[in-house]
């Protein structure tokens, strides 16, 4: 060993080797040092402008090298190809799995923000020759006017590939879905060939590639636009080229491997850490004599890894997690959590709710133990192959540690489950080891040492078993069950579904994440950008797009608890509220997303010339004695029953405020429950309206003050007055005799989560909140005749599959609602004359999730 190391050093430490090594080490050292010695801006500029030319040189050089080695590659490939039956089986399996994925799994984003960043970088790279993210801007005359750009913390390799396809396929990047699907069978075959080349075990190679491709998370990512499929593809390609270079051992072969590994490093920042495994195992071959193999390899690898190195350097110390969670220091915690998620992927209905298969993980563990056993036993016999495999895998997965430690690779968060693709090829190889070796053991004649037909039978049996197990989850794949809880991807699907229904005109969108639209070649600005525009600029924008400018209130605008504390999320609810208050918006489309919020699309008509919060001010309705009986009447408050036995009227007091530039055709409408009290022209001033006692309903009376511009509601204020006459009783003043509900605790004048009672945007001060299924019983001793209440699902949780509500009197159904979902308020009226026990019952349709039922303004009338 000492002589061997001495020989390697002797062949390296010579002028060419030293120069090559110094250059190769100096490049990453200087790049990483830059921000720490006052040159962060230099790194920023290089990160924006250097990747594209380097990628182009890398591509041209790689093609030239491969063309010059084409004949050699064909000859080498012939030497490693297995027998036709297993090669044909690999080809058929690769195609069959791709067909299954293409027909049974919806093409859509799975990690919306990350995937759209790659696409936005591609747009900027193609049209502006810069590798930063275009966060917002406009497409004009085939150019992208990027008004806000930033350095992308994502590596640039995937964006470069998109850029290569755009001249032919266009910059509406929906075509990428087909491209990633096409990569699936190619990845299968590359992995198969790479393992065959290194192990000369075709059966092992076949089952490793098969197990890899059959994992649900792999299939789903190959139907998305994620970088992880490219990662698997390039990892297999790198292993194949590595073996080719290892066997041929020439400068050109090692140079081609350096270019391949350098591009492999452009998939994820952590990928650079796995290059150490390739370098260490390549050294003995590259340094077997004094030539230029090693220096050329090192310099090319270092030079063309510069795009990834620039990204790592610029973002060093960047807080990727955000929020309350610190990513570092949770490696073992994440490891344990991930194992639980991967081995228990089913819910209580037997549905696959996480994209993993239990058997695969246990088979991987068995394979790992088997590899360790073989490594030890074979090493004792002088065979180091399995020990070398074990060491290579250990070095290769330093990157896995970096992922779990530095970016919180907790698979409990759906968007993090894609990280498993970094591990799955190796897991599949280990899982295939015991399977392939068992088949060969039972299918080999002990005397002749030749394989029998049992190998074919057992191989086919295991293939059908593994494939069948994946394919039998077809209904879950069709329902996209693994990702239907991902709010942002669902939001994007709904937006594009609506957009595809519209006329194909030039449009501009105002959105919290405008790069999502830029990614597809559609103009978009952030809310803040539009708010900063003056009226003239806004008019110019509306004219340019012929009024086709749309505002979208999406996930970021909602303050609900819709995210995991370890996920990168940012809420700008206040920003959206201010925008909606200041801007003239005309609702177009509302879509309920999977939980806690709507995506709302509105046509943008410019800035309001009035303040909707200050158009009308309304006082609380007041009872008392009339002093003057006209529109400016006033009341002296007091015990109206004592002063005026016939019942004093109700005074409604409100002020209409002058608005700068307000049009003359505004109107005021006042409605008492469903009765129109006033419909008049809007004239600034202070007014009083008297409502006679006999017009008041027993119990709750709601007065709505509505300011309109034509049919458009500019402002609305609701006020409620409780008429206590004749012994009317608020239900909330009684204590229930009994109450039970499926989840949480009853809320009194507050929601289940302790918030104001809110149904379809309307807030109520009085009511009870329950969680279906629930049953609340009141003892009313036959003293009331009627029961009235409004009922609906609270806006705090919108994902209920639906509920129904019943009012029962002494066990008999007196009134009921149909099954309803969020966004609607229903009225319950029941005759309860003679009823001793009044029961309010809620029933969930299907899952009880999110079934927060509010009974608002419930009243008992004698």
Structure report:
The chain is built from 29 helices and 30 strands. It has 862 residues and is an alpha+beta fold. 44% of the residues lie in helices and 20% in strands. Strands 18, 20, 23, 25, 28 and 30 form a six-stranded antiparallel sheet that branches. Strands 4-3-5-7-6 form a five-stranded mixed sheet. The termini are far apart. α10 packs parallel to α22, α18 crosses α19 (385-396) and α18 packs across α21. Mean pLDDT is 89; it is low at 625-645. A hairpin with a 5-residue loop joins β6 and β7.
Radius of gyration, rounded?
Answer: 35 Å
Question: Strand share of the residues?
Answer: 15-25%
Look at the helices and sheets and give the structural class: alpha+beta
Q: Count of helical segments? A: 29
Sheet with the most strands, sense and barrel status: 6 strands, antiparallel
- Helical residues, percent: 40-55%
Distance between the termini: 100 Å
**Unreliable sequence segments:** 625-645
Using the alpha-carbon principal axes, give the shape.
elongated
Give me the count of strands.
Answer: 30
What is the averaged pLDDT score? 89
What topology does this entry show?
Blueprint: H1 2-12, H2 15-33, H3 40-49, H4 51-68, H5 70-80, H6 84-104, H7 112-128, E1 133-140, E2 143-150, H8 157-169, H9 176-199, H10 202-213, H11 216-221, H12 228-248, H13 251-264, H14 275-286, H15 293-304, H16 306-314, H17 331-343, H18 358-380, H19 385-396, H20 398-406, H21 420-442, H22 453-471, H23 474-478, H24 487-501, E3 508-510, H25 515-518, E4 523-525, H26 527-531, H27 535-544, E5 549-553, H28 573-582, E6 583-592, E7 598-607, E8 616-618, E9 622-623, E10 625-626, E11 635-636, H29 640-643, E12 650-656, E13 666-672, E14 675-681, E15 685-691, E16 699-709, E17 712-723, E18 729-730, E19 738-741, E20 747-748, E21 757-759, E22 762-764, E23 767-771, E24 774-779, E25 786-793, E26 803-809, E27 812-816, E28 826-831, E29 837-844, E30 852-861
Parallel strand pairs: 3-4, 3-5
Antiparallel strand pairs: 1-2, 5-7, 6-7, 8-12, 9-12, 10-11, 12-15, 13-14, 13-16, 16-17, 18-30, 19-24, 20-23, 21-22, 23-30, 24-29, 25-28, 25-30, 26-27, 26-29
